[in-house]
Amino acid sequence: MTTVPSGSHAPSPAGVFVAVGGLYIAQSVIGGLTMLGLPAVLRSQGLPLDQIGLLYLTVIPWAFKFLWSPYVERFRLPAVGRNRSRSIVFAGGLLCAAGLVSIGLTGPYPLAPVLSVLLLVALITSTVDIACDGYAVETLAKEHHGWGNTAQVGGSYLGSALGAGLFLILVERIGWSYATFTMASLVILLGLPFVFGPASRSAVETRSHAPSLLLALKRPQVQRGLMIAAIYVAAQKWGLSMLGPFLIDRGFDLASIGILNGVGSMIVGFSGALLGGMLVRLWGGTTVLILAILLQTMLLAAFALFSFDGSLPRAFIIPIAIASSSGVMSVGFVALYSQFMGWSDPKQAGVDFTLFQCADGMVSMAGGLGAGWISEHFGYPFFFTAAAIVSVLAIPAIGLLMRGMNDNAVVLAQLSDGR
């Protein structure tokens, strides 16, 4: 892996933060549209929940991008030459925008063609993400890695606000086509700071390390980290996969859900990301992870109660939904992703970090597909109750696995010396 450029070629941390932050926002615009916005649109048109759950197939590229991450990194970082991150991002942004324009022209249903296009867009976006993560880790000096983590988590919530919040409001006001065209334009605009920013001024370098998936999988720290990631994602995400359709079935319109998603992501989610970073520094990653699961369990139990007893005032659902999908999630995932950075080998952080993200994607996809089927056949009360039980069981599992994972820097240094 290349080292941080020196001299006149070294970009400012603020410039890198803005550049990669724009890409993280753009990725989450697409993700928010696909996973939160589109399910609500489809449910408002009467599609059954088990069909809506098929949208979680778009997580497949995110779940398996570790398979091609070494090849992307080797192309991006040639043995001799300039960093190719800019080329990957530029081409990927154009292709993603073209995909959104195409579904804007065809409409949100029938679902099969829309799903096919979104799968292709997800493949492109996940590949761009490998380059973006690798560029951030290698370009920012170690003391500025927190900037990259803030850009990733904060950008994801801002992008989700646009893709799930603003998008639904636009669908309600100006229709599907123009709303989707607007999102395509945003994807292009958000990529410009990277394409014309610090990535355009890379220097010719010589690199000796070839990124390897096998080296990552051999490390016990990565193996245990993957188990932690899988359990934690199941506890945090599974119960929220049917939140949009649930709110539609309880009488909320698309504009209301859009406002909920937008306010939750932009204000509560971003604030939660900042709070999560502070709590990790004060209490450590393990404590924050377990605290987030506890809070999510209580919120899922509240959803289960409301789904049993529909007489509970709708006003109670709004703060619970925002707290669950934005507040608690952002606090917990800042802690989890900070652990990912610590568990990644600096010599091939793009590959290692991608592995952890893929565990997130695989578990999210499995939970989303199962959530639609369970909700359709057994109802929301059973679904939310089962999700709360999964969260409870995750607490002791996370606690046990996190033992011995705190001295990450020491262990990694020993492993690197012995390689």
UniProtKB/TrEMBL annotation:
It comes from the Bacteria. GO terms for cellular component: membrane. Its main location: membrane. The chain crosses the membrane at residues 16-40, 52-68, 88-105, 153-170, 176-197, 226-248, 254-276, 288-308, 314-337, 380-402. The keyword Cytoplasm does not apply. Keywords: Membrane, Transmembrane, Transmembrane helix, Transport. This is MFS transporter, putative signal transducer. The keyword Kinase does not apply. GO terms for molecular function: transmembrane transporter activity. It is found in: Membrane. Belongs to the major facilitator superfamily. It is a multi-pass membrane protein. It comes from Rhizobium hainanense.
